[in-house]
Structures are given as structure tokens and as C-alpha cells.
């Protein structure tokens, strides 16, 4: 087993020093050591990719589609993305110059941030939020500016955004928004999106809008995109991982004005060369003949969130109103004194239920835990049964 030469140890990219491995994955590994554990830790749908999408990929393989394709994506897929996104946002993105296909939304974020940011830039990140945002910003040499939204219903209000920009002064390059939000499940009202758009326009900033959960909206809630109001300033990011239960397929995409997308496409070419052909064939099918697939998933998730919300409230958990994605962000009962990490560890060890501490999602998440309800009804019933026994025995 080779060991690195000692003189080479210091010769690395030191931007990595500021980045730690994912706390979420680390805690999931901690939870996994316990026998018979019921895990509500990861945003991993238990549902399967629809059969017609899988068959499209199989046909593509059987047709020997095994050579390099266009680097920004197959023309048919770019057309399908353009048509779909126009239906969602009202923005007509040109498939030939304003869209690129990526290896999931994570790579899309990494690609976009690498294009936009320089050392010393600042990016406003409302928390709680998926922790990878902060890590990806740090990798560019820029600084994430966390904004605690726990006192505004887990929503970055226009007033709070204005306040943070004024406080930070020069160097604020962009704001990152995830809507619906991981980990809270909160969706942004139209008037808030409109207000944020005005502030962003006023301060000559970019908006990086991660809308990966936009197809998973429940009840009377509706999704509104920043791209609708400031398309000239928005980098729109999405994919099929959540909407079509395709997390392992790794298919994402970026849309934006041609002037910035020329650089985004160039960066994406350097990062991946091209997205796998049969994955793109599956995506074409999903966005052409599978636009109704998410409805079935929404109905399932709606039933699950109602079940978990009702049961947890009986136990004294307060929570953000989950109207999107597939997470419940629950404030732990007062008797645990806000120690979300300690609570989550005890729950895993003593009750064999895995959840993620809220503080792992930034300062705004302290005192909460995230529970994913992207698990089967049986798993959720067993988890709630164990949580009930654990809380009532304390």
C-alpha cells in the first residue's frame, strides 16, 4: 500500500482546508452502526424511477449510443428542458446557447459558482440550508455569508436581504436560494420572491436559484421562481433526482442568459466532458412523456407528511409548515434544551431512529432535527412509534 512522499504533503490546493466532509453523510454513517436502525436521514426517495423512463435508457444502450455526444447535451434534451422550464418560469431559454446538461444539481451548483466567484467575493446563503452550499462556495475562495432565517419562518425576506447586503458592504456577488427548501420544506410566497428580485436588481447581484424540489409542492402552495422576475440576473438550476426519483442517475441542468452561459458551458465541458448518453435518453423521456409522473409521487408524499406532522405535534415538536420537498424540520421539545446533536445521537442509540441534527444546516437550524419522509409508510410508522416511546420515556 503506497504512502505519499512526505515532501508532497503540503503541496495541495489549500482551499480544501476550509472544507470539511458532509456532516449529513458523517452522521448517517454514525447512525448506520446501530443494528435495526430506522433511518430518516437522507433525501433519498424510496420510490423507483418510472418504468417508461428506465426502458428509454435500455433502448438507448441497445441502440449502441456509446459515443461522445454534444458537450452541452443532446439537442432533443435541451429542447425538452427549454419547453419544460418555460412552462414553469415563463422564460424562453434558447436550447442552443442558454442551457447545459450537468451531472446532477450538485455539479450544476459547483460549475455555476466556479464561473461566478473569485477569491474574496461573498455569497449570501440563508440558513438552515443544505450544507453543501457553504462548502462549494468555500472551494472557489469566496466566503459564504450565513443568514439565520429562523425568526422569519425560515424564509429570507427582502428586508433581511437588504440588511445583510448593507452590513457586508462591497464584495457581495450573489445570493443562493433553494425553493422549496431543504431542510425545512418551506416554500416562498409570490410577494417574497418579487421583493427579493427587486433587492437583487437594486444591488447588481446574481441570483443562484436551486429549484430541484419544485415539482414536489403540496396542498394549495404554488412555486414561484426568481427567474420569472429577474431572468437577466438568475442562474436557474434543477434536475430530475427528486421529481422522478432519479437520484442515482445524476441528471441536472443549468439555464441562464447566453452571455454567462458561454462561460458556464465552458466550465462544464472541463469538469465532465459530457453527460452519459443513456442517462440523457432517460431524461428526454421524463421531460417528454413523464411530466405527470411527479403527481403520483406528490400524492404519496402528501399522505406521509400529514401522518408525520400529526404524530410529531402530539409529542410536543414544533415545526416549519412543510409544503414542499420531502422533509420535516422539527424543533425538539424544550426538555432537551436545544441540544439537537445530543438529541439525535440519543435517538439513534436508544430508540434506533436516525435523523439529522438541524445545526448541520447552519446557524438557523440549531435546536431542530431534519426527518426525511421519503421512506415507505411502514418505515415512517415504525419510526414514529419508536420516537413516541423515546420521548415519553424521557
TrEMBL record:
Residues 36-387 form the Aminotransferase class I/classII large domain. One of its GO terms (molecular function) is pyridoxal phosphate binding. Its EC number is 2.6.1.-. Keywords: Aminotransferase, Pyridoxal phosphate, Transferase. InterPro entries: Aminotransferase_I/II_large, AspAT/PAT-like, NHTrfase_class1_PyrdxlP-BS, PyrdxlP-dep_Trfase, PyrdxlP-dep_Trfase_major, PyrdxlP-dep_Trfase_small. Coiled coil: none annotated. CDD domains: AAT_like. Its cofactor is pyridoxal 5'-phosphate. It is an enzyme of class 2 (transferase). It holds the Pfam family Aminotran_1_2. One of its GO terms (biological process) is amino acid metabolic process. Belongs to the class-I pyridoxal-phosphate-dependent aminotransferase family. PANTHER family: AMINOTRANSFERASE (PTHR46383:SF4), ASPARTATE AMINOTRANSFERASE (PTHR46383). This is Aminotransferase.
Amino acid at each position: 500500500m503506497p504512502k505519499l512522499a512526505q515532501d508532497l504533503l503540503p503541496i495541495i490546493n489549500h482551499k480544501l482546508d476550509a472544507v470539511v466532509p458532509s456532516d449529513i453523510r458523517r452522521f448517517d454513517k454514525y447512525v448506520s452502526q446501530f443494528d435495526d436502525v430506522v433511518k430518516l436521514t437522507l433525501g433519498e426517495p424510496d420510490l423507483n424511477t418510472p418504468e417508461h423512463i428506465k426502458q428509454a435508457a435500455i433502448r438507448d444502450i441497445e441502440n449502441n449510443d456509446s459515443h461522445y455526444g454534444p458537450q452541452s447535451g443532446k439537442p432533443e434534451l435541451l429542447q425538452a428542458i427549454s419547453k419544460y422550464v418555460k412552462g414553469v418560469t415563463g422564460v424562453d431559454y434558447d436550447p442552443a446557447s442558454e442551457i447545459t446538461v450537468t451531472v446532477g444539481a450538485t455539479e450544476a451548483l459547483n460549475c455555476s459558482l466556479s464561473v461566478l466567484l473569485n477569491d474574496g467575493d461573498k455569497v449570501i446563503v440563508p440558513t438552515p440550508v443544505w450544507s453543501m452550499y457553504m462548502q462549494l462556495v468555500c472551494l472557489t475562495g469566496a466566503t459564504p455569508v450565513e443568514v439565520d432565517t429562523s425568526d422569519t419562518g425560515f424564509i429570507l425576506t427582502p428586508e433581511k436581504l437588504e440588511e445583510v447586503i448593507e452590513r457586508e458592504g462591497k464584495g457581495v456577488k450573489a445570493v443562493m436560494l433553494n425553493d422549496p427548501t431543504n431542510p425545512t420544506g418551506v416554500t416562498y410566497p409570490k410577494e417574497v420572491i418579487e421583493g427579493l428580485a427587486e433587492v437583487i436588481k437594486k444591488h447588481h447581484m446574481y441570483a443562484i436559484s436551486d429549484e430541484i424540489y419544485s415539482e414536489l409542492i403540496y396542498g394549495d402552495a404554488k412555486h414561484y421562481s426568481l427567474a420569472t422576475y429577474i431572468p437577466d440576473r438568475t442562474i436557474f438550476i434543477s434536475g430530475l433526482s427528486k421529481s422522478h426519483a432519479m437520484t442515482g442517475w445524476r441528471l441536472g441542468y443549468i439555464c441562464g442568459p447566453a452571455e454567462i452561459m458561454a462561460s458556464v458551458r465552458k466550465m462544464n465541458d472541463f469538469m465532465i466532458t459530457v453527460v452519459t448518453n443513456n442517462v440523457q435518453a432517460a431524461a428526454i423521456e421524463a421531460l417528454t412523456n413523464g411530466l405527470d409522473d411527479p403527481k403520483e409521487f406528490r400524492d404519496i408524499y402528501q399522505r406521509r407528511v400529514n401522518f408525520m406532522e400529526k404524530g410529531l405535534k402530539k409529542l410536543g415538536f414544533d415545526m416549519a409548515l412543510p409544503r414542499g420537498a420531502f422533509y420535516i424540520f422539527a424543533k425538539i421539545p424544550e426538555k432537551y434544551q436545544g441540544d439537537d446533536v445530543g438529541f439525535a445521537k440519543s435517538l439513534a442509540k436508544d430508540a434506533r431512529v436516525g435523523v439529522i441534527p438541524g445545526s448541520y444546516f447552519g446557524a438557523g437550524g440549531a435546536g431542530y432535527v431534519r426527518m426525511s419522509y421519503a421512506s415507505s409508510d411502514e418505515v415512517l410508522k415504525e419510526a414514529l412509534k419508536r420516537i413516541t416511546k423515546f420521548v415519553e420515556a424521557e
